[in-house]
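Exercise 7. Given the encoded structure of a 317-residue chain, write a plausible sequence.
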């Protein structure tokens, strides 16, 4: 009769099975776990920076005294839209992107946006450079500056609480020193007496001629078209003679609170809504570090390194 009782395993067989089990459940090396954690953390950080919140440092005094050089603030990237990144993270390499607008930029908002380029640049000399200014006008508004006071659609706009300006005013009709105001070809406006000028709105139809060619050429080319003057003084867009052009994007008018020392829309023109990065939230750090060269520091600041404790966690208005 066959013996159905289970055979007792030998000591050597048990040892081999134990070794096999040990090999199958070999723990992950600590080094591998460390690098995996670093990669995951980096991906999360890139995701937050790309879609939600980004840090920004104030590099110039154009928003003084609302924002000072050395203020570090957070920017809410969901304030106006939800967009995929326009550039490969940490590079200037442009990539396909999509997005939807969630809210509109309002007059008075402090906005971070990608600099569209200087007045005569179709493509900015340096890409992926962000500016921060105050939105003064939205698509369709008419802007005018009269003796430093901004008027929007004929009504005086309330000045920012901490804006800075001097008493010296360039009289109306006197051209800006250097003649570098927007639009190109204007020789009578200056930073203190400027306009009126209408901010383009998507769908606006612009009548074109040789007289206003310089004023619209860069904007139309930035919208992806070729533009030139024809043989008989007419305007040619995409190799076709035209007498008008339909605006394809909405635009904004941006100005700094330091009105006499701000490189803003008065000099380089309209900011496309698509270039908006987000809305300034609050200052998370602030310090003053004076320059090495003498007489180049801000006379209102102590000329030594100091932390501005009273500005930390202040909102941006």
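Solution.
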């Amino acid at each position: 009769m066959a013996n159905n009782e289970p055979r007792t395993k030998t000591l050597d067989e048990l040892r081999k099975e134990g070794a096999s089990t040990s090999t199958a459940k070999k723990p992950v090396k600590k080094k591998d776990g460390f690098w995996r954690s670093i990669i995951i953390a980096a991906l999360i950080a890139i995701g937050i920076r790309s879609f939600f919140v980004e840090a920004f440092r104030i590099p110039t005094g154009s928003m003084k005294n609302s924002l000072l050089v050395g203020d570090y603030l957070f920017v809410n990237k969901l304030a106006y839209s939800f967009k995929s990144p326009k550039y490969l993270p940490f590079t200037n390499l442009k990539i396909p992107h999509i997005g939807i607008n969630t809210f509109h930029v309002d007059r008075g908002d402090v906005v971070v946006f990608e600099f569209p380029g200087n007045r005569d640049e179709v493509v900015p000399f340096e890409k992926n450079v962000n500016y921060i200014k105050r939105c003064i006008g939205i698509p369709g508004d008419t802007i005018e500056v009269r003796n430093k006071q901004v008027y929007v659609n004929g009504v005086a706009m309330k000045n920012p609480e901490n804006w800075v300006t001097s008493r010296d005013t360039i009289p109306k009709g006197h051209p800006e020193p250097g003649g570098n105001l927007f639009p190109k070809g204007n020789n009578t406006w200056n930073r203190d007496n400027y306009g009126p000028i209408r901010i383009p709105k998507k769908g606006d139809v612009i009548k074109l001629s040789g007289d206003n060619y310089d004023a619209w050429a860069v904007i139309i080319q930035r919208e992806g078209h070729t533009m030139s003057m024809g043989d008989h003084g007419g305007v040619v867009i995409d190799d076709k003679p035209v007498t008008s052009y339909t605006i394809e994007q909405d635009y904004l008018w941006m100005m700094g609170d330091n009105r006499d020392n701000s490189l803003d829309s008065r000099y380089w023109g309209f900011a496309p809504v698509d270039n908006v990065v987000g809305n300034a939230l609050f200052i998370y750090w602030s310090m003053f570090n004076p320059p090495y060269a003498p007489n180049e520091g801000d006379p209102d600041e102590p000329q030594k390194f100091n932390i501005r404790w009273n500005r930390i966690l202040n909102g941006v208005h």
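Remark. DSSP finds four helices and 19 strands in the chain. Students should compare their own answers with the one above.
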